[in-house]
Amino acid sequence: MAELDTSGLNTAGLTIDRVTKRFGEQTAVDALSLTINPGEFVALLGPSGCGKTTMLRILAGFETINDGTIQLANRILASTDIHVPPEQRNMAMVFQSYALWPHMSVADNVGYPVKLRGLRGAAYQQKVQQALVLVELDAYAHRMPQALSGGQRQRVALARCLVSDPSVVLLDEPLANLDRHLRATMEHSFRDFHQRTGATLVYVTHDQTEAMALADKIAVMKAGKLVQWGAPETLYRQPRTAWVAGFIGQGSQLKVAADHPGKRLENAALMRGLNAIESERTQSVLVRPEHIQISAALASSAAPTHNQLAAQVESVIFRGERYELTLRLPSGETLLAYHHTAPDLGSQVTVDLQQGWCLEPDQ
Ligand SMILES: Nc1ncnc2c1ncn2[C@@H]1O[C@H](COP(=O)(O)OP(=O)(O)OP(=O)(O)O)[C@@H](O)[C@H]1O
Asked: Which cellular components does GO assign to this protein (predicted)?
């Protein structure tokens, strides 16, 4: 592919400082602070109604704020008494509905924002061509939007937001209207797009696998508040609270007697905590399925060692590359585990727990 000129893109960082947005009695965004570095790909992740779209609309300038400040590089975009209008923010937004003009070709759709600014002739053609190359749609310049797939239409929308050299690209659930297969393909397109442009991207989604696959950093939101901010691996391995642990990835939460949240327990310490008396088992610990080893069915005469647990197989689901098992422990708690073969339902197995992660209780 030809060398791409993305020098026009004046990527910048965003500082969101204690931003609050209320709609009447309802606080949609509650004292949220984030520092987004230039060129970072950030996902705002959370369940429906947690305030992520409101936060994106605040960044775009479609909503004013009640408290806090937003800065793009050194420039204040919003505070209690400043509100820079959307068209002066140098940001571009991509919606889940694509919002393409049906009567314009792909090239005309992409070029529209710069045509509005008066760009014409060779400079215009070059800008449109560059943006189309970035989303690998240069061969489709003369097609009409109706003659494109959903994924291609979304790439046209991406190209259109790029022509105006935005400092930040805001994306509101851009894959929500696509089927599962296409979403996976588009995840690759978005990653490529980010690598080639180096743009600062803020991406709203309620889909944790999408956020984990795409983002450099994820802001997990709940009821308008930021509950955790970190790299996908950190959120997966070291979720702060029981709620984050349940929201990101798969796993089981067991009660143990252990000291502090934010600590990893290796096998022996974990087993000591699990074997403590009931009243002392007050700390929630997360055990991911990949940290559970299952031994062959327990012979009737064999007992698990003191560092193992006995468990009963309650359900077995075939997932192609592995089986997903639900195991019932003597304490009554359940454990999600993976295994390469399918044990009989109701059979007893021995379980080795390699490690667990101590969680903070939810507020
Ligand atoms: N214009 C508005 N007027 C009143 N309340 C609003 C308005 N916009 C959002 N809200 C409320 O603010 C809260 C946050 O909404 P928001 O759309 O930001 O959530 P979300 O996390 O993006 O949800 P979803 O994933 O369902 O889009 C919700 O309770 C919503 O009802």
From this structure: ATP-binding cassette (ABC) transporter complex
